[in-house]
Amino acid sequence: MENLLKDFEVPHKNPSEEALQRWRKAVSIVKNPRRRFRMVADLVKRSEAEKKKRSIQEKIRVALYVNKAALQFIDAAIAVAAAGGLPAEHKLSDDVRQAGFGIEPDKLASVARDHDIKALRANGGVEGIARQLSVSLKNGIHESSIPTRQKIYGCNRYTEKPPRSFWMFVWEALQDITLIILMVCAVVSIGVGIATEGWPKGMYDGLGIILSIFLVVIVTAISDYRQSLQFRDLDQEKKKISIQVLRDGRTKEVSIYDLVIGDIVQLSTGDIVPTDGIYISGYSLVLDESSLSGESETVNIDDQKPFLLSGTKVQDGSGRMLVTAVGMKTEWGKLMETLNEGGVDETPLQVKLNGVATIIGKIGLGFAVLTFLVLTVRFLVEKAVHHEFTHWSSHDAFTLLDYFAIAVTIIVVAVPEGLPLAVTLSLAFAMKKLMHDRALVRHLSACETMGSASCICTDKTGTLTTSHMVVDKIWICGKAKAINNNNSEGILGLEISECALSFLLQVIFQNTGCEISKDEDGQMKILGTPTEKALLEFGLLLGGDFDAQRKEFQILKVEPFSSVRKKMSLLVALPEGGFRAFCKGASEIVLKMCDKVVDDSGKPVHLSEEQTRNISDVINGFASEALRTLCLAFKDQDDISEENSIPDFGYTLVAIVGIKDPVRPGVRNAVQTCLEAGITVRMVTGDNINTAKAIAKECGILTEDGLAIEAPDFRGKTSEEMREIIPKIQVMARSLPLDKHTLVTNLRNMFGEVVAVTGDGTNDAPALHEADIGLAMGKSGTEVARENADVIIMDDDFTTIVNVAKWGRAVYKNIQKFVQFQLTVNVVALVINFVSACISGSAPLTAVQLLWVNMIMDTLGALALATEPPVDELMKRPPVGRGESFITRAMWRNIFGQSIYQLAVLAVLNFDGQLLLGLNGSDATKVVNTLIFNSFVFCQVFNEINSRDIEKINVFRGMFDSWIFLVVIVSTVTFQIIIVEFLGTFASTVPLSWQLWLLSVLIGAVSMPVAVVLKCIPVQRATAKHHDGYYALPAGPELA
Questions:
Q1: Whole-angstrom Cα distance, residue 593 to residue 647?
Q2: FRET partner for 698 with CA separation of 20 to 30 A, picked from 296, 460, 755, 904?
Q3: Alpha-carbon torsion angle 510, 280, 256, 148, nearest 10
Q4: 3-class SS at 308?
Q5: Sign of CA dihedral 667, 671, 674, 679
Q6: What is the mean pLDDT of residues 353-366?
Q7: Start and end of every Cation-transporting P-type ATPase N-terminal domain (predicted)?
């Protein structure tokens, strides 16, 4: 089978257009293209959208980088008309004037969009624009004005396709070619039947087909519509992006879709600019505009270049901007409209099952044609033998029409349209459940791929630890002391000079990225990263006044913390003259920058080599207790360079703090679960190696034979050395984002690993993109990281990552179960009808019955088997390797074994049923055919239960936890009783005695002991050794 599916293989991430085109061309038999390919990318629309996107980008590039004479002429005219910056001369509409604003929406939007510096100056700069928008740059807008602003200037929402109604799915289900042919056959059947047998008897057969088609269409549409609702919920969840704004004098988080014109937005590294706007203030603000312009060069934003465009990314620094255009008035809004076109890439399993459906469809089509030919030829031969070849009646036409309907229905059953759609159903179900479990799957294929993950490269802070940080120890004035957080008066537990305390508070309060605001209840709230918040809370406990400290010094320049610099620096002007630089960051890095230290009296003194060694021992001591260590330092300067550059040497060491970040509850068990599942866990962190090792041991990641390495050492290894050490690496400390990227690339390329990697920073984007599964942190992660990720871990918890892996395995296993079940039905339905047609000249299963069987095995079968929740046993076997066969030998064993049993029983009933059961009379044939139909359906019911586990004997474990499965089974049996007992007129059945009902159930139930026997037949299983020494779990008695 795998050889036949070569054209149906696509990479799970970033597939090429060639691969996508190749499998589309290979699909030849499709009953309903609109339904089959609904969750498949439309390459034509995607190409058109890409052209439109490039056109918009070119327009933006021209606006940003080309100074055309025409534009200059227009700008000059505006400047003249403005008459020295009097915006009141612009004509205002009545709506704008009555709302109290002084600038038209289109005019305002064009200022930032066209980078029109002259128009900005003509309107009085950012202060003048703010006045015209009735907004205070200090306090922001009043929340009461939001409705008016939305009415005049619009909402920050983009044009989206309207959701499809239920009736659209009904119409889509009706596009099935075979169903259309059957409907035509049914109408003709009704016409011929009424003409030959009269009203109403003549219409029963045709009406039965129409009612069956109606039932199939409604059930299919309901299933598809429910899927669409699940995906709609997921899309809404993806759009929950928050940003900090200033409103009514308070800093608060709001959804980017609730931003309005005049809002003052706080931007920091890793944010995506949510609207067009004008720069107010900030430090070292650098934007990446490549998403808009296609240009890779970054742009420095300042008073000279004050324009920010929606959709650009904050590469570095921080700042505040005034919102001037929202929604479709921004170029990003127009680009977002193009992103809705073309759909999402299909997953590898969807493509592979499209291939399986195509191959089986060809076989089914062949069987259908053969069945029709055999039935027709037999019919014609019989007419010729009875010398009736020249005499044709409407009854003969009715018989041929019935043969044609049976052949078409065989195609309905034989072409398993439900296979690729079952993947979508299973993924939609898994993604919905994961969303409740705090994991947001952004790309369908990620949920699927996560089940094959063999390695997880995880961050430490926030993922393995809680991120609820507190300063636990401090070294200051030559003494190390544990912090008494319960006693605010004696928090330090030691006496230090006023001067030393002043330096400590300055370096904490000045050099911070935190802000303090008050919530609606007037309670103080600290906004910032967990590390920054821990330091600031410590400063407040020491009795410091944050606002007073901030007002005392004028900040000149800020270099925010980044995973590359591993430090944060700040330059201020002192009130009495001169300048002071502050620095905090990774202990060993900042310590090397220091040549002085604050002594007991609070005075800077020379830092000797012996003191440096002692301080290094203190750092290592803190780190070995799993504390995150930071050095705090400052440097005084008489003058500075013109660029306000912050020095990198000559600092005075004030203190070393050890910050406690406890390991999350359950992480150790989650790591153990991963190891049992054949998933290697590697910690990649920017922390000190001793801190990293202590945490890794506590989590169970670092073992006795494992390797903990510092990134600079790793970086210096040759390719051969890397090949040797990478399997042993369990901890990488002091890593840069590039090191994470290198590790991920080598794990994938050298060892064929399926790698999941976590990331939270802007610089993690390349590693997230390179990994098989990129996992971004929902709480601590930047918007840039989330945009590049496949899954967003909403609670930042490692246990949630393991849960995603478990659901990924469940999806893969569920689809395998469904495929096994459906192929068994396919084989039996095809063979029994074909053989019967060849031997007896009639098909035991009618069109209506086959349509019901099709619904059992397609929509209802997918609902029952593809939506089963994961079980713990899934995490006690190795992951599915790259290129491993999807339809395993165990599945083929079960398919053929069950098919042989069912065919044998049904063949005996078909050819000797009347004799064995002692049936005679005019309705004997109908009773036998009804018994065959009933037994066949019960075989599928019990085989559905058998398919719950491909290898284990106990198929009842967890069955009563899956309510969907139980509902499907009960519904199938109930409706089967109704069809046989009450709808015989339409379904060509007759009511059965209780003995025959019991026989039908017993025939079906025997398939369960048959399944037990089959599962005891050994099939060859690969027991490949994992590269890090892990062996696949052996098959054995525990499989039961």
A1: 9
A2: 755
A3: 130
A4: strand
A5: positive
A6: 84
A7: 116-194
Q: Is 342 exposed, middle or buried (0-12, 13-18, 19+ CB in 10 A)?
A: middle
* 519 — pLDDT class (breaks 50, 70, 90): low
pLDDT digits (tens, 9 = 90+) for 258-273: 999 999 999 988 889 9
For residues 414 and 368, the answer to whether their CB atoms sit within 8 Å is yes
Q: What is the DSSP string of 511-579?
A: S---EEEE-TTS-EEEES-HHHHHHHHHHHHTT--HHHHHHHSEEEEEE---TTT-EEEEEEE-TTSSE
The structure tokens 């478990």 sit at 806
Structure tokens at 31: 């009953």
Tell me whether strands 755-759 and 455-458 are parallel, antiparallel or unpaired: parallel
pLDDT at residue 843 above 90?
Answer: no
Residues labelled as active-site residues = 459
pTM of structure: 0.82
Who has greater pLDDT, 245 or 922?
245
Residue type at position 908: V
Amino acid letter for position 418: G
Q: Name residue 455's beta-bridge partners.
A: 680, 755
CB 158 within 8 A of CB 336: yes
For 919-960, give the DSSP string. --STTHHHHHHHHHHHHHHHHHHHHHHHTT-SS-S---TTGG
Side chain identity at residue 916, one-letter code: L
- Let me know: does 596 contact 607? Beta carbons within 8 Å: yes
Q: Taking Cα atoms as reference points, which of 675, 707, 674, 676 lies closest to residue 689? A: 707
Going from the C-alpha of 550 to that of each of 509, 554, 573, 848, the distances in angstroms are 7, 8, 12, 80
Give the 3-state secondary structure of residue 364. helix
Provide the pLDDT confidence category of residue 69 given band limits of 50, 70 and 90: very low
Average pLDDT, the chain: 84
Q: What percent of the chain has pLDDT over 70?
A: 92
Of 58, 54, 129, nearest in space to 87 by CA: 129
Residues in the chain: 1040
Q: Give the N- to C-terminal CA distance of the chain in Å, as an integer.
A: 28
The phi-psi region of residue 202 (left if phi > 0; otherwise alpha if psi is between -120 and 50; otherwise beta) is alpha
Return the closest-CA partner of residue 176 out of 32, 358, 326, 301. Answer: 32
pLDDT at residue 1030, as a whole number:
38
